[in-house]
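Project outcomes to date are best conveyed with an example. Our students and postdoctoral researchers have been running inverse folding experiments weekly, and each run begins with a structure described purely in C-alpha cells. The record below, which covers 417 residues, was selected by the lab manager from last quarter's runs and is presented without edits.
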C-alpha cells in the first residue's frame, strides 16, 4: 500500500519545479510521465535516477490509448527497467472508450511479462458510473496497486455558482468515495484508493484555487483518511498551497465497505428463478437459483427498492456461487422478508359480484382481469403491510390470482382467507 503524498509532472522542465515543491509539501513520490500510447519518452532512466537521488520515489505514468495494447505494455516494462517503482495508466482518453477487449489484451501482455501487478495503478475519473464505456473493470483486474480517481476542480468551471463546500463534497464524497463504494460491490473486490487533487478550475490550470478554497478540498479528503494522495500538477501548483498539503493528515487508507444489499428469491410456484446474461428473456439462462436463495444486488439501494417486486423490472445480481447476471425483479423480495408462503386474502362482498384487477394501484387504467367474490388471492406484499391494508378504504394491495395474473385490487373489498 502506498503511503505519503505525490506530485505529478510531465511538461518540459517540470521536473525541476516538482523537485523544488516536494520538500515544501511533504511529498514522498514524484509521478512523472513516461509514455503516450505505445511511445516511450527518451531519457527516462536519467529522470528516475534524478528523482531517487532527491530522496523521492519515482512512479511513472502513461497516457493510455489502447491503440496497441502490446506496445503500451512495453511502455510499462521499460519504465520498470529504467528504475520507476510503479506505473500508472491514465485511463481517460476518448480513444479508450468501448475498448474493453483491448484492455484485456493489455493485461494479458503485462502478465506475460511477469510484472508485479501490485505496482500497477489505474487512474480514473472520480464519477465512475458516468463513464461505464471506459474499461475500468478490465483495468482494475490487473492494476492491483490501486485506483487513482481524479478529484479535480475542473468539474466546476470558473465562476460556477456552486459554493466551494458543495463542489468539494460532490467530487470527493459523492463521486470519489461514493461511486467507489458502489462499484466495489459490483466488482467484488476493493482496490486501494489513492485520490488525485487538481487545485484549479480550467483545463489549462490558469484559474487556480485560493488557499482558502483548496483547504476545503483538503479537509473533505482528510475526513476519509487516505494513506496516500497526490496533486496534479507541479507546473500549476502555487507556492501558497504547499504548506497546506504538507499539513494535511494521512490516515490508514482503509475505506469501510458497507454490507452488500441482499434480496431473496420468491418463486414458490416453480421453485427456482432463471439467471440471464442480459435483462431480457431472449437469451437463454446462464444459471438458476432456488426459491428462498439470498442474492447480492449489484445496483444502488435506490434502484433495488424501486425494482424489487415490480413487474417488468430486471435486477443485476450475484449468486452465492459468484455468478453475476440478471433476474426478474418481480420474483424478488427484500432479504429481510420471510421466504415462507405468502398470506392469502379473500374477495369480500363487492356489491357487483366481482372485483377488478388493475395494472396499477388506481382506477385510472382499465382492468386487466376480474376475480369473483369469494375467490382466494395471494398477497405479494409483506404480511405486515397486507394486514394493515385489508378492509381499508383507499388502500390497494398487490396480488396474484389463481391463474398467475399479478396486479392491484381495492383492499377495502378484501378479508383474511
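After processing, the design step wrote out the following sequence:
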Amino acid at each position: 500500500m502506498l503511503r505519503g503524498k505525490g506530485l505529478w509532472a510531465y511538461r518540459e522542465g517540470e521536473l525541476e519545479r516538482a523537485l523544488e515543491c516536494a520538500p515544501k509539501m511533504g511529498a514522498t513520490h514524484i509521478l512523472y510521465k513516461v509514455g503516450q500510447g505505445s511511445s516511450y519518452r527518451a531519457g527516462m532512466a536519467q529522470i528516475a535516477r534524478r528523482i531517487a537521488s532527491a530522496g523521492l520515489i519515482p512512479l511513472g505514468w502513461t497516457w493510455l490509448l489502447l491503440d496497441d495494447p502490446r506496445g503500451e505494455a512495453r511502455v510499462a516494462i521499460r519504465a520498470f527497467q529504467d528504475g520507476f517503482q510503479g506505473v500508472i495508466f491514465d485511463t481517460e482518453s476518448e480513444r479508450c472508450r468501448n475498448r474493453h477487449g483491448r484492455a484485456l489484451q493489455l493485461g494479458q501482455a503485462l502478465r506475460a511479462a511477469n510484472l508485479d501487478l501490485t505496482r500497477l495503478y489505474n487512474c480514473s475519473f472520480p464519477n465512475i458510473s458516468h463513464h461505464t464505456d471506459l474499461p475500468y473493470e478490465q483495468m482494475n483486474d490487473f492494476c492491483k496497486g490501486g485506483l487513482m480517481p481524479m478529484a479535480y476542480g475542473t468539474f466546476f468551471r470558473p465562476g460556477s455558482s456552486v459554493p466551494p463546500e458543495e463542489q468539494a463534497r460532490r467530487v470527493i464524497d459523492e463521486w470519489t468515495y461514493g461511486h467507489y463504494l458502489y462499484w466495489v460491490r459490483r466488482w467484488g473486490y476493493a482496490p486501494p484508493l489513492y485520490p488525485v487533487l487538481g487545485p484549479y478550475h480550467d483545463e489549462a490550470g490558469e484559474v487556480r484555487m485560493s488557499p482558502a478554497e483548496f483547504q476545503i478540498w483538503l479537509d473533505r479528503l482528510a475526513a476519509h483518511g487516505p494513506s496516500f494522495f497526490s496533486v496534479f500538477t507541479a507546473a500549476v501548483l502555487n507556492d501558497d498551497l504547499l504548506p497546506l498539503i504538507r499539513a494535511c493528515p494521512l490516515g490508514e487508507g482503509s475505506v469501510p465497505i458497507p454490507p452488500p444489499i441482499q434480496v431473496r428469491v420468491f418463486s414458490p410456484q416453480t421453485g427456482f428463478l432463471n439467471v440471464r446474461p442480459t435483462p431480457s428473456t431472449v437469451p437463454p439462462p446462464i444459471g438458476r437459483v432456488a426459491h428462498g436463495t439470498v442474492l447480492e444486488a449489484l445496483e444502488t439501494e435506490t434502484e433495488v427498492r424501486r425494482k424489487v417486486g415490480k413487474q417488468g423490472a430486471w435486477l443485476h445480481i450475484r449468486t452465492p456461487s459468484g455468478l453475476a447476471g440478471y433476474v426478474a425483479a418481480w420474483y424478488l423480495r427484500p432479504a429481510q422478508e420471510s421466504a415462507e408462503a405468502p398470506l392469502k386474502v379473500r374477495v369480500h362482498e363487492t356489491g357487483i359480484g366481482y372485483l377488478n384487477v388493475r395494472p396499477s394501484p388506481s382506477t385510472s387504467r382499465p382492468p386487466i382481469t376480474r376475480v369473483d367474490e369469494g375467490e382466494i388471492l395471494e398477497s405479494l406484499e409483506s404480511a405486515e403491510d397486507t394486514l394493515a391494508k385489508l378492509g381499508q378504504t383507499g388502500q390497494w394491495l398487490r396480488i396474484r390470482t389463481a391463474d398467475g395474473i399479478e396486479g392491484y385490487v381495492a383492499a377495502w373489498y378484501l378479508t383474511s382467507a
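The chain has three domains: 4-247, 261-334, 344-416. DSSP finds ten helices and 23 strands in the chain. The training component of this project remains on track.
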